[in-house]
Amino acid sequence: MTARPSPATSVARSSQPGHRLPPAAAGGPFPTVDVHAHLLIPEVEALLAGLPGLAEARDLEARRNGPAALAVNGPMVRERIPKMTDVTVRLAAMDTQGVDVQLISPSPSHYHYWADEETAEKLCRLATEATAAHCAQAPDRLRGLGLVPLQHPERTVRALDHALEQGLLGVEIAGHAPGRELSDPAYEPFWSRAEQTGAILFLHPFGCTLDDRLDRWYLSNTVGQPTENAVALSHLIFSGALDRHPELKLIAAHGGGYLPTHIGRADHAWRARPDAGAGCAHLPSSYLTRLYFDSLVHDPHVLRALIGAAGADRILLGSDFPFDMGTENPVGALRAAHLPDHDFHAVRGGNATTLLRLT
């Protein structure tokens, strides 16, 4: 299967809704690929309705965000539901953005890591199968990721296998589960299976454990999300998980948060303190070139710094489609960084074409 049609096919399909060749695709030999796009699955929330633990989880989310943010979040999400549920609407939006292919993951609001084992397994199967069905409606434009019950490590391998059996490329995970960091040894079988199968892992936080310290001015997202990314990646690096699993294909959302552009402090600690350097074999900064990061950092200076830290070959276009904390013009945001042509096209789609095996 080829992600980008031949010129002749492009002309033939140009009049069909959702199949117009976006202008950005003419800028290089690769399709334009957005690796950070979401799907809303109402059936997941219906599955959990009335279950013990749901009200408590929602209360925690409300406390973390604060009333002002919640008053904005509700209308914002409702306005965007068609883009997250209707394939025709999604494809039209992609055409407007100049995006050829999206890698779709369930909305992180569907994690529900409070759920018991049986419920969590049902939830992940439902989310995974719904994502596969959504992508199957436009298989040349859409790829997908499933979910795993991160709060139940013993069930993660089975859930990952199910996602791959459904034709998805891997799974989306948060930066931690209640009482467990990603450095927890209980996840070793999961990392091993992901490495063995070549599955893609998309690290996307949801909620920050700084809780109500961030309950104003949407700090829960603007500070909380990059903090959670930095903590999660630090656990993977300093624990030696990336030494034990060097072939993991892990994409960190939001440019990896604060870690890539502040990695010098981690390097200093690794050199200066035996407790900091005990778990990983190499300088923390060296692991950035083993990871992938999306380009969604909202600042061309930060994007260039991210490329300087990880390499242009490890950065992938990301928009956080269709949420308001994303960008409606991911290619334009990339152009604003004024990268060399080779780096621009690598980030625009060349790197993702290889990683997602689009050709």
Automatic annotation (TrEMBL):
<keyword id="KW-0456">Lyase</keyword>
<protein>
    <submittedName>
        <fullName>Amidohydrolase family protein</fullName>
    </submittedName>
</protein>
<feature type="compositionally biased region" description="Polar residues">
    <location>
        <begin position="7"/>
        <end position="17"/>
    </location>
</feature>
<dbReference type="InterPro" id="IPR032465">
    <property type="entry name" value="ACMSD"/>
</dbReference>
<feature type="region of interest" description="Disordered">
    <location>
        <begin position="1"/>
        <end position="27"/>
    </location>
</feature>
<feature type="domain" description="Amidohydrolase-related">
    <location>
        <begin position="33"/>
        <end position="358"/>
    </location>
</feature>
<dbReference type="InterPro" id="IPR032466">
    <property type="entry name" value="Metal_Hydrolase"/>
</dbReference>
<dbReference type="Pfam" id="PF04909">
    <property type="entry name" value="Amidohydro_2"/>
</dbReference>
<dbReference type="InterPro" id="IPR006680">
    <property type="entry name" value="Amidohydro-rel"/>
</dbReference>
